[in-house]
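Q: Give me a protein?
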Amino acid sequence: MAYKVQAAVVRAKDAPVTIETIIVPKPGPGEVVVDVSTCGVCHTDYLYVEGGVGDNYPYLLGHESTAVVSEIGEGVTNVAVGDKVILNWRAVCGECRACKKGDLKYCFNTHNAEQKMTLEDGTELEAALGIGSFAEKTLVAAGQCTKIDADLEDDQDAAVGLLGCGVMAGIGAAINTGELKRGESLAVIGCGGVGMAAIQGGKLAGATKIIAVDIDDAKLEQAKTLGATHTVNSKEVDAVETIRELTDGFGADLVVEAVGRPETYEQAFYARDLAGRVVLVGVPHPDMKLELPLADVFSRGGSLKSSWYGDTLPSRDFPMLVDQYQLGRLDLDAFVTERITINEINEAFDKMNAGKVLRSVVEM
């Protein structure tokens, strides 16, 4: 028998999020139904609202979650009923060209549930990032569930769930994509949730200089508490020149751009050392364009990368980072600015867009 649950849905571009009754089918082969515990309010969800991802409305929003497995379908062996999981949107297929090359973190054909959740009138819902967890229950592919064996307190679920997207994206941009090494320097442009996570990634990796760049002094002060050794207000000083001054005139070994705008990417490009690395993890709007002199791209060498989901392999990275959290080396609690109900998502989007929170987290 299918489940009727409450969930957050956006029906049209720029429409407000509404709380609707949806139908979650029983899991089929390779599928899992989970009881959602927490779900972070991520900028990617807002991209669905404003049409930045597509126009397959209505969308069932939410993807940054902890949950408990409620029911499993035929053939599911990686999780069992009652398991606590973090949901992820990289359910590795094992068969695409990336997987066959051993690059599972780039899987080009990640699994989602085959069945669709629907509104009560039968209208099919498109689940955000194949998850759709602003809901009391949701249906996902079994591979989208990463089991967490750690003994967590209930109030820690909200923090750990953020590994499902934004925090993992930032940490992974520094450690996985940027391959930050002990003793290197890191500059992070943009101190929202993802940028702050990149700073934490720099701390975990053993960077000696971690330079936080933003236009908000309050964010820069918070960046210091999360591992930044230096801060730069780019509204007051030239960010590129200041980063160079802080790195003996050379530029940072790695610059993570966590804004997703052409002007901040250009700062990142010129703020790195010769043969240094730039990692773009900020999500640009589809209509944005970048112009750089090709001679500068050639002459400065190094690498320019984009980070997809922090180049994470959830089965490898999530348990390891939960361990780091429990050991006190990773401050996930700092990312939870407020805990809210599902009815407060529109207000949470406003706070997020105004830069007033790192993460609002819905507790079901």
Summary: The mean pLDDT is 96. Residues 184 and 207 are 5 Å apart (CA to CA).
